[in-house]
TrEMBL record:
UniProt keyword annotation of Transcription regulation present: yes
Disordered: annotated span: 281-300
GO molecular function, one term: DNA-binding transcription factor activity
UniProt-recorded name of the protein: Probable hydrogen peroxide-inducible genes activator
Residue span(s) of domain HTH lysR-type: 1-32
One GO cellular component, as annotated: protein-DNA complex
Length: 300
């Protein structure tokens, strides 16, 4: 749009509204106080127009166009291969765009309209957000060679009270989950001695003998295969567990598509070491784990 045309459009809007929206000088143009107030409403109008266009597109052709998916770092490397393969095979006309960010940034992106769908640990407890549960997965204890709990089954949670536990940096939901597990086990002091930005670094610190850590089962094979200096221990039933879900905005225009995608993902994720949950399962951060020996056999 040319500058004269833009100026004419703004002048016409000012005349229609009966207020001055811009303060014009020879050097710059600023929003007037009235312009600043109305700009907030204008942004809301544009968001609703975008939703209208999105809904019209969804009605015309489901599973087409852009889908902006946000994923947390402790899920992305382990589940994205399954997600991408599913989308490629089943929804070839869907333009999937993946954004890996920490939970707080993802939730902000979802509620602001920057992202369409999130894949992360729940519960979030955020108003206006619907959680579509996918599966529960257990945490396991990763230790260096020679550690007393390495390779054991039936480890009591109380063992976490005295361990030198390595955690992710602040901002990762997995760190908060690990701290919650320690508190449930009766640990009163903060177990943090060394932190890492990602699970790969965390596991290498364990291999180097700096401590032990908690890993979700979906990350175990990928992260422990990089070192021969690691052992895995399994907790007694019920093991500490996290739930992974897709989340969307309440009343999302493409909500029916997202629910169908969640159902397809549940089926695709069954080969992984997880417990797929029903669509209407209540959200819970911890679940009862099946027999420890069966879980160990599943891990191979």
């Amino acid at each position: 749009m040319s500058q004269p045309a833009l100026s004419g459009a703004v002048s016409a809007l000012e005349e229609s509204l009966g207020v001055t929206l811009l303060e014009r000088t020879t050097r710059k143009v600023l929003l007037s106080p009235a312009g600043e107030r109305l700009a907030v409403r204008a942004k809301a109008v544009l968001v609703e127009v975008g939703a209208l266009l999105e809904e019209a597109e969804a009605v015309r052709a489901p599973f087409t166009g852009v889908l902006r998916l946000g994923v947390i770092p402790t899920v992305a490397p382990y589940l994205l291969p399954t997600v991408l393969r599913l989308v490629h095979d089943r929804y070839p006309h869907l333009d999937l765009q993946v954004h890996e960010e920490q939970t707080a940034s993802l939730v902000d992106g979802l509620t602001s309209g920057r992202l369409d769908l999130l894949l992360l640990a729940v519960p979030l407890g955020v108003p206006g957000v619907v959680e579509l549960p996918l599966f529960d997965e257990d945490f396991v204890l990763v230790t260096p060679l020679g550690h007393g709990l390495g390779g054991r089954e039936g480890i009591p949670r109380e063992a976490l009270r005295k361990l030198k536990l390595l955690l992710l940096d602040e901002g990762h939901c997995l760190r908060d989950q690990a701290l919650d597990i320690c508190r449930e086990a009766g640990r009163e002091d903060a177990p943090v001695t060394t932190t890492a930005a990602g699970l790969s670094t965390l596991v290498q610190l364990v291999a180097g003998g700096l401590g032990v850590t908690l890993l979700p089962r979906t990350a175990l094979k990928v992260e422990t295969s990089r070192s021969t200096q690691l052992l895995t221990g399994y907790f007694a039933n019920p093991a500490p567990t996290r739930r992974i879900a897709l989340t969307m905005r309440t009343g999302a225009a493409r909500g029916a598509e997202y629910e169908e995608l969640a159902a397809a993902l549940r089926a695709a994720l069954r080969p992984l070491p997880v417990r797929v949950v029903d669509a209407d399962a209540p959200t819970t951060p911890y679940a009862t784990r099946p027999d420890a020996s069966a879980a160990a056999a599943e891990a191979g």
